[in-house]
Design a protein that fits this description.
- By secondary structure, this protein is an alpha+beta fold.
- The protein is built from two helices and eight strands, in the order ββββαβββαβ.
- Strands 1, 2, 3, 4, 5, 6, 7 and 8 form an eight-stranded mixed beta sheet that branches.
- A hairpin with a 2-residue loop joins β1 and β2 (18-24).
- The relative contact order is 0.27.
Amino acid sequence: MTELVRVGVQAIVRSGDCVLLGLRANTFGAGTWGLPGGHLEIGETLIEAACRELEEETGIRARTARIVCVTDPDPAANHHMQVGVQISDYTGEIQVCEPHRCERWEFWPLDALPTPLFVGVVEVLRMVKVGALHSSPS
């Protein structure tokens, strides 16, 4: 069987020095905190995918979005590479649109993130904190 590299997109919604995280439920990584996000679909750009996932999960619509980091595929995250897309402006009110997958959304300071973090966002958030575009596994 051939293993595939999958592309995950993570929407990084900022409010000052804080970032929006959701408490995952009834899905892979239940009980961990993660960014709004999901998988790139055929025909989408990375930014389109992140904005779609953001709206599906939180009800908010991005006004501005830009790619801020890319991780290498991680075996611990089922061979997903992650693309972090920063959302610096949005419309709407944050809500739990998929209660079967997320219990709640909260803003957390980047220097005081909750634990445990979802495996797919650990490196993305580390890169956001240090301002790096890309890092390779050691």
